[in-house]
Amino acid sequence: MTNAVPELNPSTTVLLLMDFQYAMVGAIGDKAATPVIANAVAALEWARANEIRVAHIRLGFEATEAAEIPDTNKNFAPLRSAGMLRNGSPEVEIFDLLKPADDEQVFRKTRIGAFSTTSLGPWLGEHNIDTLVLAGITTSGVMLSTVREASDRDLRAVVLRDATADLDPEVHEVLVERVFPATADVVLTAELTTQKLAG
User: Fold this and answer.
1) How far apart are CA 47 and CA 52, in angstroms?
2) Is residue 4 included in any domain, yes or no?
3) pLDDT tens track for 116-175
4) Rounded to an integer, what distance in angstroms lies between the CA atom of residue 58 and that of residue 25?
5) Is residue 33 part of a domain?
6) CA-CA distance, 131 to 28, in Å (whole number)?
7) Which CATH number characterizes residue 178's domain?
8) pTM, to two decimals
9) What are the counts of helices (DSSP H) followed by strands (DSSP E) for the chain?
């Protein structure tokens, strides 16, 4: 299901580019990643051209943070044991085509969603943001967690359905077709970037 793009006010909108890191891009494979990256780049260029704030979310653990991951965490305990996604390693760097500009905010997280271990929420409040345009890898990971949290925070979420992908394509389709539309506007990147903005 694809919705109409809501009218967006540049001053109260932010583009969130989430987990576009070499490890995540590599995990979904080149075939899936290539169009997703291209659409994320198009969204980034659109945001910059329209003076819309951009924030980048990235996952990475300091050694002490990794050591504190409990065995009960099924997502991250295996990463702790394997020494993966350590802050400063090449695999956690943001993909070159989506590198943050000097004036763009970067939030480092240590769990799946964009909110739970970052100062994203206070930053959005500080800038009176009420609308999030979301792109990220993966659909069932950071996208799902962040869409749900945005709804709980009474924020409008606009999901770029072709600027996200999942390890399981069927899971991606179920989420963008049947789950996300209940709480978010689900649109194509081209629909977003050709839309007339408010003001």
Assistant:
1) 5
2) no
3) 999 999 999 999 999 999 999 999 999 999 999 999 999 999 999 999 999 999 999 999
4) 12
5) yes
6) 28
7) 3.40.50.850
8) 0.95
9) 8, 6
Tally of CB atoms within 10 A around 99: 12
pLDDT at residue 199 tops 80: no
pLDDT band at 44 (very low <50, low <70, confident <90, very high): very high
Q: Which domain holds residue 57?
A: 10-193
Number of structural domains found in the chain: 1
Residue 13 backbone phi and psi in degrees, to 5 = -120, 145
Domain membership flag for residue 199: no
In the predicted structure, residue 65 carries a pLDDT above the cut 70: yes
Distance CA 163, CA 187 (A): 10
> If you write DSSP's letter for every residue of the chain in order, what string do you get?
--PPPPP--GGGEEEEEE--BHHHHHHH-HHHHHHHHHHHHHHHHHHHHTT-EEEEEEE-B-HHHHHT--TT-TTTHHHHHHT-SBTTSGGGSBPGGGPPPTTSEEEEESSSSSSTTSSHHHHHHHTT--EEEEEEE-IIIIIHHHHHHHHHTT-EEEEEEEEEE-SSHHHHHHIIIIIGGGTSEEE-HHHHHTSPPP-
Residue 2 forms part of a structural domain: no
Strand order in the sheet with 185-187: 105-109, 53-59, 13-18, 131-137, 156-165, 185-187
